[in-house]
Amino acid sequence: MRPATDHLPTTLWMVDDIPSRMVFAGRRWKVTDTPTRLRHSIWSGSPESNNRLCGWRFQGTDDNGLSLVFDVFREEDGWHVHRSYD
Questions:
Q1: CA dist., res. 38 & res. 41, Å (int)
Q2: Quick check: is 12 in a domain?
Q3: Considering Cα of 53, then 59, then 61, then 66, what sign does the dihedral take?
Q4: Domain assignment of residue 3, yes or no
Q5: What is the spatial distance between Cα 12 and Cα 60, in angstroms, rounded to a whole number?
Q6: Could you tell me the residue range of the domain that residue 51 belongs to?
Q7: How many domains are there within the chain?
Q8: How far lies 27's CA from each of 33, 39, 63, 65, 78, in Å?
Q9: What is the four-CA torsion angle of 48, 14, 72, 75, rounded to 10 degrees?
């Protein structure tokens, strides 16, 4: 997987308000490191929102053992993957 160019939707589960697992690109991912809150990051949201969007960066590992790093953020319609890194 290469860096995403679109803000792709994802389903993210939290434990104590910290990401623990997600479903993205048809795969289940388990968070396998300590997630970092991206408080000062700004991504463009919908044109009418003009909000600062905060998110998380974490490593996720799928059922086959593939690990990627994800940057995710939340908008009104749910969580989105901003980027994924090999």
A1: 6
A2: yes
A3: positive
A4: no
A5: 11
A6: 8-85
A7: 1
A8: 18, 27, 8, 12, 18
A9: -10
Q: 70 exposed, middle or buried (CB, 10 Å; 0-12, 13-18, 19+)?
A: buried
- Average pLDDT of 18-34? 97
The answer to whether 54 touches 73, Cβ cutoff 8 Å, is yes
CA 36, CA 29: separation in Å to the nearest integer?
A: 17
Token representation of residue 42:
């700004």
Residue type, 13: W
Q: Which amino acid is at 9?
A: P
| Model confidence pLDDT, tens digit, residues 52-86 | 567 999 999 999 999 999 999 988 889 999 899 98
> What's the distance, Cα to Cα, between the start and end of the chain in Å?
7
What pTM value is reported for the model? 0.80
